Amino acid sequence: MIINGETSVYGIIGYPVKHSKSPIFQTKAFEYLGINAVYIPFEVKPENLESAIKGLKALSVKGVNVTIPHKEEVIKYINEISQEAKIIKAVNTLKIIDGYIIGYNTDAYGFITGLKEVEPDLSGKTALVLGAGGASRAVIYSLITEGVKIYIANRTKAKVEQIIDDFKTLTKYITDFIQYIEFYRIEEILKEVDIIINTTSVGLKDEDPELFDYSRIEKKHIVVDIIYKETKLLKKAKEIGCKYQDGLPMLIYQGAKSFEIWTGKKAPIEIMKNSISMY
Ligand code: ATR
Fold first, then answer.
1. What is the Cα–Cα distance from 236 to 64, expressed in whole angstroms?
2. ipTM
3. Fewer beta carbons under 10 A from the terminal one: N or C of the chain?
């Protein structure tokens, strides 16, 4: 790759950002398609977000991904927001055209595209979603648009109520689609459930507890953990013989969609996947 006066600059803003795999696969994608561009990790502390955004505009950066902890906060500093990002209340992709910033959320697309690799036929299915934070909102948005019925288990019930309220614009039958469930009652509904999805950070550490009794999972369940590793939940799913998936497909597909928004070109998915040797 040659960097010259015409090289376009893209990147990711987050804090921390060192662990991010996006620079690896986005760079590979640019290289593969012969696009003269680089993709840089930018470590941006929360107190510097506003000046960082001004800096991106001033330096004619063409686009960035936005990750933790800026996905919600960044909305204050953009000119336009896509429909799905507005409902999800989180932006993970910025496209910057002559200082005008448009915010998108490609996490929802990323999640559902990954899930369809293990279950193409989602309509009419029932999912159990663990967690109701930022990541969960993108997951839930995508599931509702596919006609999936959802139980949400979360410590804080108010966050589920907020999701129901915010997602009313998607369907007037939202309360038929989303129901709150306490963690301790999960076993009562597992028979009805087709897909189990962990969106919490529980499982990131090996010593983390189970969110419910994982030995109650059945072979018929499809189990997804959006964490990028084999968590206790995924190990159990594998042991039971379920179809399962970690967070890497979601990561790749959200990035692929961002790439397409920036370049207008179809993202080279296999190249991107291979670059982080996930399969
Ligand atoms: P993200 O952007 O990764 O989704 P977040 O918005 O902070 O992060 O959401 C974290 C989610 O993990 C929340 O649903 C949180 O539950 P609360 O809403 O009750 O805080 C959930 N979570 C984090 N730690 C947890 C724990 N130890 N047990 C259960 N849920 C937990």
1. 36
2. 0.97
3. C
